[in-house]
Amino acid sequence: DGGITQSPKYLFRKEGQNVTLSCEQNLNHDAMYWYRQDPGQGLRLIYYSQIVNDFQKGDIAEGYSVSREKKESFPLTVTSAQKNPTAFYLCASSPGTGLLYEQYFGPGTRLTVT
Amino acid sequence: GNSVTQMEGPVTLSEEAFLTINCTYTATGYPSLFWYVQYPGEGLQLLLKATKADDKGSNKGFEATYRKETTSFHLEKGSVQVSDSAVYFCALSNQAGTALIFGKGTTLSVSS
């Protein structure tokens, strides 16, 4: 089955530690995205990538970093510079970028930092 | 800038009731519009979409019509089921098509 996998489902870290969230897709999609979801809020875009070895900042990129070394993988690192890292993180992909493409979402990773 | 406004929830209905969740938007150009659904603890699933004015998206009994004159994309279903209980998000694409802008979501709770 084609889809997007995110691991782990739950992640716990101590304050001051960097942590990397995994996102893999086997849909052969060119574009990938990372969103953050907070309780009672919509999703906010952290980073997106339209093609391998290229990525762009979204609305709330501060304290986060990404890489896109392979088409199917788009890991997100939450650094110690992110002031409020506890949230639900969702990865998505789409065949390309443009108005006609919908995004397909993974199951999410819930990160708790204490 | 682009933004999406959804009706506040929670919306509580009995099984077989009619559902409307209001969504209005502000955007430059002609965005595509989407409804996504999120079940507890899961990611988002695309429910339906519309890419131009007067288009009607439909799926699983849900419908929404892209109304440019009222900048709205209201979600409707004629008869809800308990299994429809979830959070519903209205979203639009930015002008470049590189991101989705989401509303805050509306929680629907259906009881039998």
What does this protein look like?
The complex is a heterodimer of chains A (114) and B (112). With 114 residues, chain A is mainly β. In chain A, a hairpin with a 5-residue loop joins β4 and β5. The N and C termini of chain A lie far apart (36 Å). Chain A contains no helices and eleven strands. With 112 residues, chain B is an all-beta fold. Helices cover 0% and strands 50% of the residues of chain B. In chain B, the strands form three sheets. In chain B, strands 2, 5, 6, 10, 11 and 12 form a six-stranded mixed beta sheet that branches. A four-stranded antiparallel beta sheet of chain B has the order 3-9-8-7, with no helix packed on it. In chain B, β10 and β11 (100-102) form a beta hairpin. Classes of the chains: A mainly beta (114), B mainly beta (112). Chain A binds chain B through residues 4, 6, 31, 33, 40-45, 48, 50, 56, 58, 90, 92, 97-108, and chain B through 4, 30-32, 34, 36, 41-46, 49, 51, 89, 91, 93, 96-105.
Keywords:
heterodimer, A: 114 residues, mainly beta, seven-stranded mixed β-sheet, four-stranded antiparallel β-sheet, globular, B: 112 residues, six-stranded mixed β-sheet, 0% helix
Percentage beta strand of chain A: over 45%
N- and C-termini, Cα separation of chain B:
41 Å
Oligomer: heterodimer
Q: What global shape of chain B is seen?
A: globular
Kindly summarize this structure in a few lines.
With 114 residues, chain A is an all-beta fold. Chain A has no helices and eleven strands. Chain B has 112 residues and is mostly beta strands.
Question: What is this structure's SSE topology?
Answer:
The complex is a heterodimer of chains A (114) and B (112).
Chain A: E1 4-7, E2 10-13, E3 19-25, E4 31-37, E5 43-51, E6 54-57, E7 64-66, E8 76-78, E9 87-94, E10 104-105, E11 109-113
Chain B: E1 3-6, E2 11-14, E3 19-21, E4 23-26, E5 33-38, E6 44-50, E7 56-59, E8 62-65, E9 75-77, E10 86-93, E11 100-102, E12 106-111
Parallel strand pairs in B: 2-12
Antiparallel strand pairs in B: 1-4, 3-9, 5-6, 5-10, 7-8, 8-9, 10-11, 10-12
